[in-house]
Amino acid sequence: MKKKILQYEVGESVEVLLLIKSAARGIASNGKPFLTLMLQDQSGEIETKLWDVSKEDEQQYVAERIVKVAGDIQNYKGRIQLKLKQIRILQPHEAPDVSEFLERAPLTKEEMLEKVTQFVFEMRNPNLQRITRYLLKKYQTQFLEYPAATKNHHEFVSGLAYHVVSMLELAKSIADLYPTLDRDLLYAGVILHDLGKVIELSGPISTTYTVEGNLLGHISIMVGEISKAADELQIVGEEVLILQHIVLSHHGKGEWGSPKPPMVREAEILHYIDNLDAKMNMMDRALSRVKPGEYTERVFALENRSFYKPKFHS
Amino acid sequence: MKKKILQYEVGESVEVLLLIKSAARGIASNGKPFLTLMLQDQSGEIETKLWDVSKEDEQQYVAERIVKVAGDIQNYKGRIQLKLKQIRILQPHEAPDVSEFLERAPLTKEEMLEKVTQFVFEMRNPNLQRITRYLLKKYQTQFLEYPAATKNHHEFVSGLAYHVVSMLELAKSIADLYPTLDRDLLYAGVILHDLGKVIELSGPISTTYTVEGNLLGHISIMVGEISKAADELQIVGEEVLILQHIVLSHHGKGEWGSPKPPMVREAEILHYIDNLDAKMNMMDRALSRVKPGEYTERVFALENRSFYKPKFHS
Amino acid sequence: MKKKILQYEVGESVEVLLLIKSAARGIASNGKPFLTLMLQDQSGEIETKLWDVSKEDEQQYVAERIVKVAGDIQNYKGRIQLKLKQIRILQPHEAPDVSEFLERAPLTKEEMLEKVTQFVFEMRNPNLQRITRYLLKKYQTQFLEYPAATKNHHEFVSGLAYHVVSMLELAKSIADLYPTLDRDLLYAGVILHDLGKVIELSGPISTTYTVEGNLLGHISIMVGEISKAADELQIVGEEVLILQHIVLSHHGKGEWGSPKPPMVREAEILHYIDNLDAKMNMMDRALSRVKPGEYTERVFALENRSFYKPKFHS
Amino acid sequence: MKKKILQYEVGESVEVLLLIKSAARGIASNGKPFLTLMLQDQSGEIETKLWDVSKEDEQQYVAERIVKVAGDIQNYKGRIQLKLKQIRILQPHEAPDVSEFLERAPLTKEEMLEKVTQFVFEMRNPNLQRITRYLLKKYQTQFLEYPAATKNHHEFVSGLAYHVVSMLELAKSIADLYPTLDRDLLYAGVILHDLGKVIELSGPISTTYTVEGNLLGHISIMVGEISKAADELQIVGEEVLILQHIVLSHHGKGEWGSPKPPMVREAEILHYIDNLDAKMNMMDRALSRVKPGEYTERVFALENRSFYKPKFHS
Amino acid sequence: MKKKILQYEVGESVEVLLLIKSAARGIASNGKPFLTLMLQDQSGEIETKLWDVSKEDEQQYVAERIVKVAGDIQNYKGRIQLKLKQIRILQPHEAPDVSEFLERAPLTKEEMLEKVTQFVFEMRNPNLQRITRYLLKKYQTQFLEYPAATKNHHEFVSGLAYHVVSMLELAKSIADLYPTLDRDLLYAGVILHDLGKVIELSGPISTTYTVEGNLLGHISIMVGEISKAADELQIVGEEVLILQHIVLSHHGKGEWGSPKPPMVREAEILHYIDNLDAKMNMMDRALSRVKPGEYTERVFALENRSFYKPKFHS
Amino acid sequence: MKKKILQYEVGESVEVLLLIKSAARGIASNGKPFLTLMLQDQSGEIETKLWDVSKEDEQQYVAERIVKVAGDIQNYKGRIQLKLKQIRILQPHEAPDVSEFLERAPLTKEEMLEKVTQFVFEMRNPNLQRITRYLLKKYQTQFLEYPAATKNHHEFVSGLAYHVVSMLELAKSIADLYPTLDRDLLYAGVILHDLGKVIELSGPISTTYTVEGNLLGHISIMVGEISKAADELQIVGEEVLILQHIVLSHHGKGEWGSPKPPMVREAEILHYIDNLDAKMNMMDRALSRVKPGEYTERVFALENRSFYKPKFHS
C-alpha cells in the first residue's frame, strides 16, 4: 500500500494525491499573490505554498478539491512542510472519492452501530432504554458520521461514535467493579452525552460550529431533546430528570460548560469516563508522532502539557 | 396601624401576633429540651427561645402556626432577640390568614400583571410576543406569587413578578437611550429569564429547591420550555434560538450558572439589568436597617461587602 | 459626500487622502527596507506596505503627515489591506486639517458642554455642585477633547465627554426609577470618575499613557484633585469623602484598579452605569462592522467574546 | 447479630458497648465541668455529653477506653446524638479487644496481601517488579493496617491496602481496553503511590500526621524511598526515574501537592484511577447514610457537593 | 516582677489587675444575663465569664475599666480561659494608668524617634528629605503611638514606629548589598508607606477603622498627603511622583490594595522589606507561644499556615 | 578594550568575532533557504539573517562555532538586528576559546568558592555543616559553572554560585537583624536550595532541561540527595528533616513547585531571600538596557511588568 503523506521523512521526495483542506491568499514581499494550502490525506495534514498565483489559480485551488502534487518534505521552524515542484488539480472524473482522504475511526460504522445496539439491548430499565433508542434512531446517520469535536480529541470522521463505543466498554468494566452503580443510567448517559454535537457541529468535513451550537451548545440542546423524547414516548418518571441531569452535568463544572455539577453517582462517573477516554485519545495521538526519548508538542486540551515517551520500552 | 415586630427598639415590651417560620429543638445544659423559634410578620423575622418544653409543646409549636406572644426586645450578640414572657398558639378560627404575616412586594398582583401585560402588548415582533404571552399565561398564577429567590434578593411573596416589573421599566429606559437595542428581545428576555423559578422553587412560603431545581436549574428548565412553546405554537425562526440564548446566558458566565456567555447585544444588557435591579434591592434592604453613619451587615451576595450610610443626608 | 476608506469593499480601487497614524520600518527578504504604514480617516484605519524605500522616504513618511494614495482594497489573512499603486506626501499648504481625518464623537463639543452644564445646574447639594463645577472648569478644554481610553471603548476625539454625557442620561433614568439614590452624588460621580484621564493620557491624537498615568493612574490622580479642590473652596463635609470614595471605587475591585470596592449605594451604581455604557459602545462598534448572520471579531475588553448579529431583523 | 450504634433510629433506646474516640472538657453555664465524648463502633461514631463530672471522671473517660452505655438516640440540630442514662467504664479484663470497635476494610489482610502479590507476580519488567516487591516487603505490616487518609476517603483500618486493591483491578480493566498503556508501570505506580502514608501518618488508630508527614508529605517521602531502593538493589535504568515521576505526579497539579504534573501516559491514568476510586468510596459512604429521595450531607472532598439518591430505583 | 496573665500555666490560681478590653452580654440557658469579658495586660488577653449579672454590673464592667480579679486558669476547647472566683472594679484613684496594661513596642518613643531622625538626616536628596521630614513632623505624635494594624502584625502601641524602624535597618542592609538602589527613595518610602494609618485607624487603644480608613484606605490618603506636602513646600520634580508611586504600590498588587503594581526598582524592594518584616513579626509572636516540637495556631495573614518549632535547638 | 556587540548603537558598522548560539533554517518568499543566526558575546546576543544558503552553509553555520562578521546594526520592529555584509567561520586553530563569548558572573570561581567556604566554616551545628560540605564537595565543579536557570534570572555561566553568594550575604544581614533566626539553617538552606539544578540542567552552554529535570525537578532531586548524604554520613537528627523541608518549600507554594509551603521560620525567610535576589538581578539587567525616562521591556518573570527608570537621578 502506498505511503501516506505524514509517513515520509524530511528530505524525501513525494508524488501523491491530496485533498485541499483550506486555501488562504497572501501577498509576498515582491508584491505578488501566493496561496498557503493545507493538504491532507488519512494520515493527517501538511502545509505548502504556491507562489505567484493568477486569478484563475485562486479560483481553482480551493477547499475540497483534490490535487496531484510532487515535491520535497522539509522542516520549517520545527514543522513539516511540503516544498512544491509540481501541482495539478484533478478533474472530477479522474479523482478518487473525498472520503478516501479523510481520517476516520478505526472501526466501520456497521461495527460501531452493532456494538452500541448491543449495549442498548442489555439495558433493563424500559424508560431509559426507550428514550435512548428513540434518540439514537432519530440521529443515527449523523451519530455514525460526525467527529466528536472540531479539534482536541476524536476530531475525525465517525469520532463521535468511536468515542461512545470506547466509553461504553469502559463503563461496563467500571460497573462490574463497583456494584452500587446503575448500569442503565451509565449506558444511557454515555450514548446521549455528546449526541447534541450532531446539531452543534456542521458535519464531518471542514467541521465548524453552527449558530445553534455557538449560542446554546450541545449540552443544552440534548437536555431539551430528552425532554421532548419523553413527552413523545409518554414516559413519566424520575429517570427522565436523572438522565437529563447526567447529560447536563457531564462537563463537571460551570466553567467547563455544565450549569450544574454532577449530583448523582453515575453523573460523576460519566464525567470521569468521558475525560479518561478523551485524554487517552489525545495522549496516544500526540505520542504516536514522536520517538522514544522525545517529548510531544504541547497539547492545549491537556493543560498545555508536553508528554515524554520513555526509552526503556524500546 | 399597629407596629410591626422589627419596628420595636431594644428594651421595648411587645404583645403581638406572629407566624412561626421554623422551630428547632435543642437540649439545654440542664438536660431539658427547648425550642428555638423563628417568628415573623411582614417587617421580617425575630428569634426566640422557649425553655423546658414538653412533648406536646414540640408538636404544637411548628412552622406555619400563628402565636400570640408577649415579651421584651433584647440585643443578643449584636442581633435582635425576643425574650418571651408569654406565648400561646392561636386556634385556626381565631387566627388571621397566614398571608398577613408574610412580607410581599409593594405592588398588588393585579398591578403587576397589568404592567407586564402592557409591556407584552407593546411588543411588535409577533413570534416573540406569542411565545412570551403563551408562557406567561401557562405559569401566570405562580409567576404572580413566587419569590425571586430563597434568599439574597426579592425573597418575598410576589418577589419574582416585582423583580420583572422593575426590570421592564429599566429595560425601557435603556432601550430609549441606546437605539441599537431590540426592544422586543429585551422585554421577552426580562419576562422569561427567571420564569423557570416557578419550577425550581417550591412556592412562596418556606421556599426550598425542588429536585428538578437542584438537578437542572431554572435556566435549563426555561430554555426547554421555550423550545416546547415554539413547537406548540408552530413558530419557526431565529427569534426562538436567540430568545433561548438570552435566557441561557443571563447569569453571564459558566461559574455563575450560564453554560454560554452572552453573545448577542440584548443578552449582555439583560445580564446587566438583572444585576442592577437585584443589587439595588439588596442594598436598599440592608441600608434600611441601619442609621446614618453606620455600616450594614456584610451581604454575602454583594461579594460579602458591608455598605456605609452617609450622615450628610440627614 | 466622498466615501471613507473603510466603506470600500474588497476588490475596489480607491484614490483618497489619508493621515499617517504610524510608520514602522522593516527589511524585506530581498534585503531592502520597506515601511508598514497605518493610514486613517474618520471611518477607521487600514494598513499598507511601501516597498524599497530610500532614506528620504523614511524621513518623509512619518506619523501625522497626510498622503494622497491610489490603490486596491485587498483581503490579507482575513484583514483588509491597501495595495498601493501610488502615494504622495501632501505639502502643508495643500493638505486639509488633521482633525478631518480623526474619528470623533457624534456630538459637538458645544453640545456636550451644554448637556453637562445642565446636569451640574440641576444639582442641589451646594458642596457637590461647587467641587464638580470647579474641576470641570479647571480641565474643561481637555475634557472636551480627550478620548476616554487609548483603546477598547470611546477611543476617539471627545470620547471622554461623550461617554460622560451618555452616562449622565443613564444615571438620570436610573435615579428616576430608584428613589433611594442620591442624584447629586451620581451626577458628580459620573462627571468626575474619568476626569483624571486628562492627566493620565497624552492627548487626543496618537494617545499614549503619561508617566504620571502609568505610575499613579487616573483614579488616584482624581481622588487627590478632589481633595485639593475642597481645600481650595474651603468645603468641609462628608460629601467630599463620599465623592472621593465614589471615584476611587468605580472600577469595582482591586484587580481592576480600585483600591476599595464600592461601599456606598451610588458607588455601586456608578460602577454599573460605567460598564453598561462602555460595553454598549464596544458592542455597537464591533457589530457595526459585520453583516447579519455573522460574528464580530473577538473583543478583548468584553472577555474576549465574539458577538453574533441575528439575521431575523433583516 | 447485635445492632451497631448508627443502625438505631432517632427515638430508640440503646444499651451497648462503645469505644471512646476522644474526650473534651467544657464548663457548663452553671459553672460545672462536663465532658463531650465521641463514642464509636464499627458502624461509625456518635457524640454524647457527660454532665457534672468529677476530677476522677475526667481521668477515667479518656480516648481508647471502652464503656458500657444506656441512653436514647436524639436529633440535635440535625445531627444524631446519644442522650445518656447510664455509663460505666469497663475494666480491661471484661472489655473486648479495641479492634472490634474500629471500622475496617471489607477484605481481610490476608486476602488483600494475596491479591497485591498476584499483581506483582504478573509484572514482566524485572526492574519495576523488584523495586515494588522490595518496598512492599519493607513496609508490609503497616501497608496492611494503615488507613488511606485521616478523613475524606478510605479512612478506616486497612483502608490503604483496600484502596490499592480496588485500584489494581481498575488498572487491569483499563489496561485491557487501552493497549498503549504499560501494565507494569501502572501496577507499580498503584502499589507505591500512597505507600509513603505509612510514614506520613501515625497509625491506624486516632490517626494524625507525623512531623515528617507535615513537613515533607508522603509523595516526597516515597520518591526518596524509590531512589534508595534502586541503589540498594543496584538497579540502573530509566524505569526508576519514570516510576519516581509517576508517584511524584499522582496528585495531578502543584496546588494539589504534586511538584510536577503527569508527563507520562501512565502517570496521567494513575491520577484518574486514584481519583475515581476515592470518589466512588466517598459517594458510596455518603449515599449509604440517606434514603431514596434525600440528599447527602455536603462532602468537602467532593468540592463540597451534596449528592441526590434517586427514588426510581426503589 | 509580678507574672503577667499569659505567663501562668493551666491549673494555677491568679490574683491580678487587668484591663477590660471588651464586654459582651449574653443570656444563659437559665434565662439570666451574663457578660463575656476580654481582659488584658501587656502579655496579651484572656477571656472570662461573669454569670448572673445585674443592670448595674452591665454598666460598670465596660471597656477601658481596670479590674482586680482572682480565679483559676483553665483550658476550654483548647483555649486558655480564666474561671473567676472574685472580681472588683477599681476606682480611678486606686487604679494604675491604662498604658500599663497595653502591649507596646520594645523600644521607647524617644529611641524610635531618634533612629528615624537619624535616617532622615542621612538622606541626600533635598526634595525627598524635606517631604519626609515635613510629613513626619505633621503626624509625629500619632506616628509614635499608633499600632501598625488592628490585627495580624505589629498590633500594639507604637507598632507603627517600631515596624518602620525595623524596616529602615533592613533597607540599609539591602542598599549596602545592591548598589543600584536609591537609598533616599527607600528610606522615604519606608517612613511614609504606612503613615496614612494615623488617619485610617482610630488610635492606639481599642483600635478600629475610621470612615475615611474604610472608604479610602491609608494608601490613597498618604498619596494625597504627599501631593499636598509638595505643593506646600513648593517642591516640583519627578521625585514627588516616584515617591507617590512607591507608597501607592507597596501592597504589590491590585487585589492586595495597590491600584498599580511596583514599576520602579525601589518600589519592588520596599514591598519585599515590608512583607519580610511583617512576616518575621507574625512568626515570632506565634512561635513564642508554643514549645519545641509543637505547631503554632494557624495564622490567617500567613496564608493560614501553622508553623513548626523544631526540637533540635533545645 | 574592544566594544562588545550590544554596546554599538543603531546605525554603527561593526566588525567582530561572535559565537553562534543557535541556527534555524527558513524558506524565503523567493523559495530559497536562509538561516536565522543568534550570535553572542559576553554583552548578550543579536539576531542576523544569512540569505540564499547552500547545503554546505547549513552544515557549517551551527551552534557553538565562532564567526567573524562585518555588518550594520539596525532596528527591526523595535529590536536590534545585525545586517550582514560579510561572515566567515573561523577554523578551530584561529578561534578564541568559546568561554570568551559567554556571559559570566562578575566574580571568579575561586572568589565565589572562597566566600561560600567561609560561610560553611562559620556554621556551628556540626550536622548541618557536614551535610552542606559533603554535598557542596560532591557537586563542586558543576556548582561553580552552572547558570541558575535557562532564562529569567542569573542565566549566565556561574550564575548559580553567584546567586548563592549574594543570598548568603543577604542572609547574614537578615540574621543580624532578627535574632530568632537559626543562622546555620539559613546558610545551609541557601547553599543547597538550588543545587539540584546541576542535575536538572544540561550545563553552562546552550542550557536545556534534562529528562530528570523535567520529570522530577531540582527540588525533589535535592531533597533525595540530602537524605542519602545523611545516611552516608550516619547523621540522625531532626536537622536533616528540617533541612529537607527548607529546600522542599523554598518555592513557597504548590503552584510554584513546592509540594509543601514553608512551615518553619527559616524556610519562609529563605523563600524571601531567594525572591529578593532574583528580582534585583532581573530588574538590574532590564533597567541597564534603557535610558532614564524610558521603560524596560515587559519581564515575564516579574509578572510581565515593565519598569520605569526615573530621570531625576541623571
Automatic annotation (TrEMBL), chains A, B, C, D, E, F:
The keyword Metal-binding does not apply. Shows a 3'-5' exoribonuclease activity. Its EC number is 3.1.-.-. The lineage of its organism: Bacteria, Bacillati, Bacillota, Bacilli, Bacillales. SUPFAM superfamilies: HD-domain/PDEase-like. Keywords: Exonuclease, Hydrolase, Nuclease. InterPro entries: 3'-5'_exoribonuclease_YhaM, HD/PDEase_dom, HD_domain, NA-bd_OB-fold, NA-bd_OB_tRNA, YhaM_exoribonuc/phosphodiest. SMART domains: HDc. It holds the Pfam family HD. Residues 163-279 form the HD domain. Signal peptide: none annotated. It comes from the Bacteria. This is 3'-5' exoribonuclease YhaM. Transmembrane segments: none annotated. PANTHER family: 3'-5' EXORIBONUCLEASE YHAM. The keyword Transcription does not apply. Belongs to the YhaM family.
